[in-house]
Design a protein that fits this description.
Distance between the termini: 28 Å
Helix content: 10-25%
Largest sheet: 3 strands, antiparallel
Shape: globular
Strand content: 25-35%
Order of helices and strands: HEEEEEEHEEEH
Number of helices: 3
Structural class: alpha+beta
Length: 137
């Protein structure tokens, strides 16, 4: 799972999230720091309204929460979702001799670049961050 810090960087860079079953997210509420929630039709469902998306908690262990706005949630994309976001720019994932992971991507108009992190998901997140940032220029 990507770090909260990288998820915040992706969100700040403009990465959009359309909540769907299986997505993980964290909430920016003091008593819930470190908690990770997963969207599931059985427990947490996204409800889209003209005013925005609300993540509804359906009477499970999250008894203190009825719903939260999507703006209060921080998406924690999985490795497969990050790889999908890279699309045709993704070239490879490899493990370096020091145990870190290297994601190689070719961003539009740039030569191939390597993104290294101790966790594969974070390496993917760094590559997606570079892609999103390049698209905003």
């Amino acid at each position: 799972m990507i770090s909260i810090e990288r998820a915040e960087l992706l969100q700040a860079a403009g990465l959009l999230w359309a909540p769907r079953s299986g997505d993980r997210f964290a909430l920016r509420q003091p008593g819930l720091a470190g908690e990770v929630f997963t969207i599931s039709e059985m427990t947490i469902e996204p409800h889209t309204y003209p005013t925005g998306t609300v993540l509804g908690f359906n009477g499970t262990t999250e008894w203190a929460l009825d719903s939260v706005t999507q703006d209060d949630a921080l998406w924690l994309p999985r490795e497969d979702q990050l790889r999908e976001l890279l699309g045709g720019t993704f070239r490879s994932l490899a493990r370096a001799l020091d145990g870190s992971y290297l994601v190689v991507a070719e961003l539009p108009g740039q030569p191939e670049r390597s993104f290294a992190a101790t966790d594969a998901a974070d390496a993917y997140a760094d590559a997606v961050l570079a892609l999103v940032s390049a698209a905003r220029v």
